[in-house]
Amino acid sequence: MDHKYLKRVRRNDRFARYIITVGGLAVIFSVILILFLIARVTFPLFQQPSVRQVAQFNLANPAASRVLATGVDEYLENLFLVGGDGSFVFYDPRSGQTVERLAAAPPAEGLRVVDAEQFGAARYNLLWNDGSLTMEQVRFRARFDAEGRRSFERSLVRLGSLGPLPEGLPQRTLARGSAEGGLVRVTLQADQRLRVDQHLVSEDLFGDQTTEHYDFYLETVAPGEKITALTMDEQGTALYAGTDQGSLLRWDLSEPGEGVLKDRLPAFTDRRAITALGLVYGDISLAVGDALGGVSTWFPVASAASGGEKRLQRIHTLIGHGSAIQSLVPSRRDKSLLSIDADGIVHLDHMTSERHLLRLGQDRPLRHLAISIRGDGLFAIDGQGRALVWRVNNPHPEVSWRTLFGKVWYENYNEPVYAWQSSSASDDFEPKLSLTPLIFGTIKGTLYAMLFAVPLALFGAIYTSQFGNDRLRGIIKPAVEIMAAIPSVIIGFLAALWFAPLLDKSVPALFLTLLLIPAFLLAAVVVWQMLRKRPFFKRIEKGHEFLLLIPVLLAAVVAAWQLGPVLEAWLFGGNFNLWLFSEAGSRYDSRNNIVIAFALGFAVIPIIFTIAEDALSNVPHSLKAASLALGASRWQTVWRVILPSASPGIFAGTMIGFGRAIGETMIVLMATGNTAIMDWSIFNGMRPLSSNIAVEIPEAPVAGTLYRVLFLSAVFLFIMTFVLNTVAEVVRQRLRKKYGRF
Amino acid sequence: MNNYWRKGEPFIWGTAAALSLTLLLAAVLIIVVMVNGLGVFWPSKVALASLKDGQQVLGEIVRREPVYEGVGERLQFKVGNRDLYGLDFRWVDEAAIASISYPQQATVVERQEYGNFIGLLQSVQAEGLPTAATPWERLQAARRLVVEQQEGAEEQNAELAGLNIRMERVRRKLQKLAYAGKTADDEEMARLEQRRREIDGAFEQLVDRQASRIEELHRTTATFAAIDGSERVIRVADMVRCFRPNAMSPGQKAFFYLGKLWELIFGEPRESNTEGGLFPAIFGTVMLIFVMSLFTFPFGVLAAIYLREYAKEGPLVRMVRIAVNNLAGIPSIVYGIFGLAFFVYGIGGSLDRLFFPERLPIPTFGTGGILWASMTLALLTVPVVIVTTEEALGAIPSGVREGSLALGATKFQTLYRILLPMASPGIMTGLILAMARAAGEVAPLMITGVVKLAPALPIDGTFPFVHLDRKFMHLGFHIYDIGFQSPNVEAAKPMVFVTTLLLVLIVLVMSSVAIHLRNKMKKRYAYRTF
Q1: Model pTM?
Q2: Residue A665 to chain B, least CA–CA distance (Å)
Q3: Helices (H), B1-71
């Protein structure tokens, strides 16, 4: 033969081997890479937050002006201090140089600032030494020049001012302003009395503004007890106080001219002093720091013990400090909370997930602390007057294994719950991302569907493979396989828009069908007894029974649907759905589990049927022949010989069907109603994992918490089906080995 | 008798009943789809019901069912005239009806908007029509006239579209130059600006001419009276169809049916997809399957050949095989979410940053599109092709392989000349099964680029002719969308059933062919041990 030709052939062969090997392996491994890639999206959910120090510098002359408060802008490019002379000093974090100094004008000549309270977005209440108060806000306006560099225009805006009080300089003072220009001031006097000044602005229909002024004293603590911490919400309607005896007090100031004491309760059994109070973002939860370093959050809850009235209750306890808490600084972005203790150690915790996120200041005690509005930057001053700036990488503080799977006590809930509620109209809404109700929904829908599908598919497969006529088998099997190809969107559509309305009207008829089918079947068998000896009917027993049964079953169904309304009138007073609600206390949803069981069952029957039929008909004929030759009847042969031999295959089929039902999306999306409730009733719907992904992923911001949690639920779906399928596949391969090919 | 029970014969009947039930369920599904889907386009009679209180109702009788409380039945009329009554349907108690008749004059007008109008023709306002004829004849003549005029308008439309595309191209070029840092005094920029103004001018002119033409078209109108006496003037240009079902012969009805069928397959959708045709959805589905096959077929076959012919049998290959089988059972939504993260945001986002940075933040490839949807589906169906191809290769007796090798053929020659041709029916089966699965799959598409209404097809006459970045329509999603997201579900139901019927037919035919092929092949190489 031509030498060249042989060479070319050999080269081709080598080449092909190389391409096929590389290509084949690449395809297989890239497909398997999917799990890894999906899982990678979810990793950041469980990462510990990291912190990076970006700047450190010495303050010019910290001793000269006492530092009362600190602040930082959203870009971490403007740091500022509030000094005792009422000046706001701005620093550039890169150089550490003072870039600007803005002074708040004192209300009278020669006054000093004795205290500064920070609240809201870069707002500061300055208490001057004559007892008067001014409310200042620091504003930044970013400018971009032609090269895209950022520069800032800093300004100080006075939002309001209040004159001195007759009682003289108070121990503590709080003030809040409303958008209309109203002001509320609360002052703690030296004699432990709390004085409230309300300046309310109301606007009538014609746009005329009137200002009303109220001042009054609040009912406070017992003599001998001292108020040690005070805080107020941003509207100035709820006031909280803590005492050195460990009491917590709450007043409602929403009515003009009136302060109602809503709560006075001992917060701790050991009567430890409360040293700091703060309101978590959203102004519902109160954070309490105590003298022993404990941090806990509280909000009013209605319970049976309090007679339905809302009373403060301890909800979350965060990781404690080693010494008394000095102050609590809430994040302005989420429910995170910074706490700083007397040793200068700072903790960052998330309230709802109770995750301990960060710990700072072990090496050097920190004093004044500010968090940027996006929660990604921290600015602190340490004991030696050095300024420190950190950048915080903390993308998903609200997620932990506990919030994903356990019961969580969310704000405004009366008890811990499993809840899935990913979005809402309001801004300070806290997403509730518990996967438990979704997994519950998946399992509930799947289980009921399997209850319906497995018996039908398995018995049908037994009949087809063992008793059925060979020629008919050649038709039935492809028919069932084609049934498997019906798109799930069609099954879902028919279930939701055709079957569900039908079922709405006749639930009792469905139950009657379940009763009548066995009854009619039994009757048919008894009648058959009398007929079977005749030669014509003998032929039917050779694999045509199921054809004879079709009219019987049809008759049973027709009878049930005819008798259904009669039964409904007789047992359920004419309306089953109403009866269910009033008698059993269970609501009837139109998109319920019965619909799902039928639709999902219908979708998995062909899968289970095909695999089980394969397994049954691949049991060697020799076994069957031997059993029959020994005198066993055909049912006995099937029950005692064939089924045990094929059981691994049947198990595998069931598992694969189960896996398919878990992942089915369109049917459940259309026919479940998609409400995340946890109720085993077959008259309710649910919200399974798969349809939840389909509904929410188009709306989820990329790389946000919801996005990653949805990926996590996809990982769960993947793992569930992977385990089921692997088990089934291993079992099937064993079976193949045992009986040769397939 | 006792013997009969002891032998367990009744249990056999029990298993037979299970099979019967399964088959019945499948039959019910097919029958429901057929019954509801086939009859939709048949023009049904329009009934005129005179009620006992003197009111009259004109409409098709859609359904009858028992009254909720009390005795008797109630009838559901499809009265149309959504613009007049707000709802298309009306329930009337049979007890309240004095008489029902089927007037020959009752006319149904299919309109571009607001659904059907059912009423009586009063007069036709048009120029240049014989005045002596009956209104009905005049209407027919007017419609012919309008259709002719509309053809002229179509040409102008094409011209407009052409201008639009040129304009868009110039705008893109400008954008690109601007991104590259060119300013308005650049020569190229100035030239393009000039072009843009020219096109703009031509566009304005054309729009003006078209507007006058449309105004002329709109002057031809017909006046109809609804059954409650209110009159309605309908532009002839807005009529899609106009017919008198009670006066139609069976032959005319059959012709009408075929016309509607033609519109269904080749027409554009109207009325937020609840009327008109499915052409974009059919086209999108076919193109999706085609692009998917381009990926699935070579890669699936390659992987199967490697697994069966080249890989050394061992624990690793066994594991890989289990994994591949397994992947066929992974939920489609998981593939969808993967496609979104990997293809759309990952690869698509990178492509945008590399090649189309001037258009950002408007994504080109970094958003769902037919390419990403096809690739996601390809991933989903690759295991199907691998498994069936492997089975087909495995079913070839090893004697064939050994014979070829013994004659001196190399492994590749054996594969190429002997094994692949022998396995080709099996490979085809796998491909067809994969295509059928892709045709019916909706969940992964929903997040990778399918839309309710795509403004343009993925293939058209503008360069580069195939637009894989475009969003597309799909039959399966169409069903979900109009069945569940349309504002008027009751009126949309017929269309859903028709779409369902079409999709069922496509999928059933495809999988029947696949299964037939497979069974034929099985018989060819089957050997029994007993």
Answers
A1: 0.86
A2: 6
A3: 2-6, 9-38
